[in-house]
Design brief:
Pfam family, one: Peptidase_C65
CATH superfamily of the largest domain: Peptidase C65 Otubain, subdomain 2
CATH architecture of the largest domain: Up-down Bundle
Protein name: ubiquitinyl hydrolase 1
InterPro entries: OTU_dom, Papain-like_cys_pep_sf, Peptidase_C65_otubain, Peptidase_C65_otubain_sub1, Peptidase_C65_otubain_sub2
Radius of gyration: 47 Å
CATH class of the largest domain: Mainly Alpha
CATH topology of the largest domain: 3 helical TM bundles of succinate and fumarate reductases
Number of domains: 3
Keywords: Hydrolase, Protease, Thiol protease, Ubl conjugation pathway
Structural class: alpha+beta
Helix content: 25-40%
GO cellular component, one term: nucleus
Strand order of the largest sheet: 3-4-8-7-5-6
């Protein structure tokens, strides 16, 4: 096939020679022949001439100086890829830490497995250089929220606001730090509002600290307070530093995205956290001896309202949550529960509690041995079948003719009088109930009422279903009570 319009073919090939729209003529003009020292020749093709370069000579670059090499090496060492994920993660199981170290050193495997038992939950901080500051700040507000005490939160707000004087003493201008202070005060207000509204969890705090502007403002405020505290208390920290305190604060405390070290963390706790009665504990995950992480308490060993627990791995801090204690609550069963409550206390002057009239009126339970004469030893020696003896209150419905018979005495030495106690004879007719000894007081023996439920009970001798049924005899000289 032969094309009739060679100009069309030439334009088509010319436009498709290089992708991205670069034409051959542009490439030809872009090459500096004086730099690369190249020559070119034209090769005739059917449609047009394409320049072909021959014998290219590569330009030899001058070697870099030692200072430039060191600068490039430093840039390479300092490069860190951007860490993905939220600034503050939701609370999650500590098993993710165990899974992360499952193929690591055996010491880490053992300690992370034990950590998942003692501290079953964790909260991951984003490793952007602020993880230690963010972990302490979040743990501080989280513990204040779970105290559920608005008075305590307001007290902390006043204490933090009063620390602005430290910033003024070290020369910070108010218009420079007021934005950071406002962010912290706003967070206090949201905590108070959440407590008053009964918000169940700390999800609102997670949203606050995942807002980059709000989170960084709070962290910067805490950085400035820590730096001011260290400058005003240099004697406490200078011995642990290789540089002056002012220089240390300017390079390690106040700049953003500079990770906190041991000295800075102690200063943060001393300045901001210690006055809140909240403890701070660090658990070090390292290769030290033992099967568990190494704890270290940064605050004085005294009673605290709550504890911020930090997990430290080289160069990174996260929050840990210890296992909550569980209690086995055994239900308390009240066996003397009253079936009705429409009765008056039967002797409020003698006892400080209300006795159950249904239990008090059971025959034989309120028998007062002092009301009966002492029996002789032969009668006591031979076992007697249990007899039905009505309670003192029930005796009021019996005539003297049917009162309990008193056994005749025989000539024998009189035994000592019976002590005031419950009968020792056990009956299989019903449950054995042990009453308080106070109910056996003599002045109470005739004050128990006969309740309506007992009148209709088969245990009542006047009831027709009682095996020893005996009708009540009314005497004209006695009125029914």
């Amino acid at each position: 096939m032969q094309l009739s319009d060679t100009s069309f073919a030439r334009n088509s090939l010319d436009s498709q020679l290089f992708r991205g729209g670069y034409k051959a003529s542009f490439v030809e003009q872009s090459i500096n022949t004086s730099t690369y020292n190249t020559g070119y020749s034209s090769v005739s093709y059917p449609f047009f001439n394409i320049p072909v370069y021959s014998n290219p000579q590569t330009y030899a670059m001058e070697p870099l100086s030692r200072e430039e090499l060191e600068r490039f090496q430093k840039l390479s060492n300092d490069y860190e890829p951007e860490v993905q994920g939220p600034l503050v993660s939701p609370k999650q199981s500590s098993q993710i830490i165990s899974a992360e170290y499952s193929n690591a050193d055996p010491a880490f495997v053992t300690k992370t497995n034990a950590l998942a038992v003692t501290h079953p939950f964790t909260r991951i901080m984003k490793g952007d250089g602020n993880c230690g500051w963010r972990a302490v700040a979040f743990g501080y507000f989280e513990n204040l929220f779970f105290l559920r005490d608005t008075i305590k939160v307001q007290s902390e707000l006043g204490r933090i606001k009063s620390m602005n004087s430290l910033l003024d003493q070290v020369g910070h201008q108010e218009y420079l730090y007021e934005t950071f202070v406002d962010a912290t005060e706003e967070t206090f207000g949201q905590v108070i509002d959440a407590i008053q509204k009964g918000v169940p969890d700390e999800s609102f705090l997670v949203e606050i600290f995942n807002d980059y502007s709000q989170s960084m403002s709070i962290i910067t405020h805490f950085r400035l307070l820590t730096g001011a505290w260290m400058k005003l208390n240099q004697v406490r920290y200078q011995a642990f530093l290789s540089t002056p305190v002012d220089q240390y604060c300017a390079t390690r405390i106040e700049p953003a995205k500079t990770e906190i070290d041991e000295v800075g963390l102690q200063a943060l706790v001393d300045s901001v956290i210690e006055g809140s009665d909240i403890a701070v504990e660090i658990l070090y995950l390292d290769r030290s001896q033992g099967d568990a992480v190494t704890p270290h308490l940064l605050t004085p060993n005294r009673q605290s309202l709550a504890t911020i627990r930090l997990l430290y791995r080289p160069g990174h801090y996260d929050i840990l949550y210890s296992a909550e204690p569980t209690f086995n609550m055994t239900p308390i069963v009240n066996l003397q529960y009253g079936m009705s409550t429409d009765f008056n206390p039967w002797d409020s002057s003698a006892l400080a509690f209300d006795a159950n009239p249904h239990l008090m009126a059971i025959p034989g339970l309120m028998m007062d041995p002092s009301a009966f004469p002492a029996v002789s030893s032969p009668m006591m020696a031979s076992p007697q079948p249990p007899q039905f003896i009505p309670s003192p209150s029930q005796q009021e419905f019996y005539s003297p003719s049917i009162s309990p018979p008193i056994p005749s005495t025989v000539s024998s030495p009189a035994p000592p009088s019976l002590p005031l106690s419950l009968p020792t004879t056990k009956s299989s007719d019903g449950p054995q109930i042990r009453l308080n000894p106070l109910v056996m007081k003599p002045n109470l023996s005739h004050s128990l009422p006969v309740t309506t439920p007992f009148k209709n009970s088969p245990y009542n001798q006047a009831h027709f279903l009682n095996s020893d049924f005996e009708p009540i005899h009314w005497e004209p000289n006695e009125g029914r009570k």
